Amino acid sequence: MERLVNTVRPYAWGSTTAIPELLGIAPTGEPQAEMWMGAHPGAPSRTERGSLNELIDADPVRELGERSVEKFGPRLPFLLKVLAAGAPLSLQAHPDLDQARAGHAAEEAAGIPVDAPHRTYKDANHKPELICALTPFDGLCGFRAPAESADLIAALGVDSLKPYVDLLHAQPEEAALREVLTALLTADPEEMAHTVAEAAVAAGRLGGDHAPYAALAHHYPGDPGVIAAMLLNRVRLQPGEALYLGAGVPHAYLEGLGVEIMANSDNVLRCGLTPKHVDVPELLRVVRFEPADPSVLRPEASPSGEEVYDTPIDEFRLSRLVRPEGAAPTDLTRPTPQILLAVAGRPKAGEVTLAPGESVFVPAGETAELTGTGTVFRATVVA
Q1: Per 3-state DSSP, what percentage of the chain is helix, strand, and coil (rounded to 5)?
Q2: Mean pLDDT, range 272-292, rounded to an integer
Q3: Would you give the DSSP letter of residue 276?
């Protein structure tokens, strides 16, 4: 079992206080957006024996187990994060596996360096993900019914938005959403900036359901993503609730602290609300224009007391162990690799005591127990 030392990424949208509060340390004043736990080459966790990816490369079967290596290859299939949004993240979607492989191959053939700012496909993997709230968590996920978006936009009373309102009442709904999103993201930038400014004033005046879009415009003035965001469902998660985001689902996180797990990939297609590279044509190609209510996940308790977040993919399995005082030990032995993250109390994984924000890597097949009091998130794979 290896205690992990993890990198905190200082993205501009990060909260300055949420991760330091979890870790019980003083804030630096700088944004601290994501703490990465895993073997992603961009910021692998470190151990006393070297980086986690070095340990896995040296003996994949020992660290990951035969099942995981056979199914996913000689690498850790997931990346676990603590995500702390102090400002809105980019409006984005992720490719499916075939799209990721094709996009990565095309950019490799074109000779685009993997670290180039305009590179879209950093790897050949898909990036399904799950976000579980540690605090009240605000986000956008999936398309609303177009008629609902039409009403929200029409209430702004902005003349230049009326054509979009009319389009949203057209049928079929999927075609209406595609046409409106395409029109918003390809409109003349100067004209759209003026429209967004006018909409922001109206949204601030109306408040209520319109308040988040005034806040978006404050962070990203003139960005067409402000209007595009009104096409998406607003979701508010309470602690312990989660969202699963599959391929092609447009989304953005607005504010809050959560535990996030995803397939081990960095493929993100952005279309707004960001200073990073925006790839509108590719995003429009992979987005699924399907209106649907977002499905908020709540953990399902197992006989052992482990609470599992059920998702339709195998690269990761996230569960939560809430251990009251006097709880019986939990057997941690699994034939697959695990990362354990404490978020409350001071539980012990084997002989390692974990304070909030601390984590360990448990190699496949290692015998150990979880004891003590606190709350632990457990990340592993289905294999």
Answers
A1: 30, 30, 40
A2: 92
A3: S
pLDDT in tens, 216-231: 999 999 999 999 999 9
Residue 353 has pLDDT above 90, yes or no: yes
Residue that has been written with the tokens 């950093």 in this structure: 122
Place of tokens 């697959």: 336
Q: Which residues are catalytic?
A: 270
| Residue 59 CB partners (closer than 8 Å, separation 6+) | none
Q: Cα–Cα distance between 280 and 312 in angstroms, integer?
A: 28
Structure tokens at 180: 């409106």
Please list the alpha-helical segments (H only) found in the chain.
Answer: 18-23, 52-58, 60-64, 66-72, 97-109, 146-154, 162-168, 173-186, 189-206, 211-219, 225-228, 280-286
Q: Which letter, b or e, does each residue of 157-192 get, where b requires 16 or more Cβ atoms within 10 Å of its Cβ? A: ebeebeebbebbeeeebeebbeebbeebbebeeeeb
**How many other CB atoms are there within 10 angstroms of residue 324's CB atom?**
9
Q: Which two tokens stand for residue 141?
A: 């996920």
Q: What is the model's pTM? A: 0.94
Q: Determine the straight-line distance between the first and last CA of the chain, rounded to whole angstroms.
A: 20
Strand-pair partners of 133 = 258
b/e map 43-56, b = 16+ CB within 10 Å: bbbbbeeebbbebb
Crossing angle (nearest 10°) for helices 146-154 and 173-186: 40
Both structure tokens of 242: 């989660």
Q: Over 90: is that where the pLDDT of 115 sits?
A: no
Residue given tokens 């990721």 in the structure block: 100
pLDDT value for 55: 96
Can the peptide bond before residue 95 be classed as cis, meaning omega within 30 degrees of 0?
no
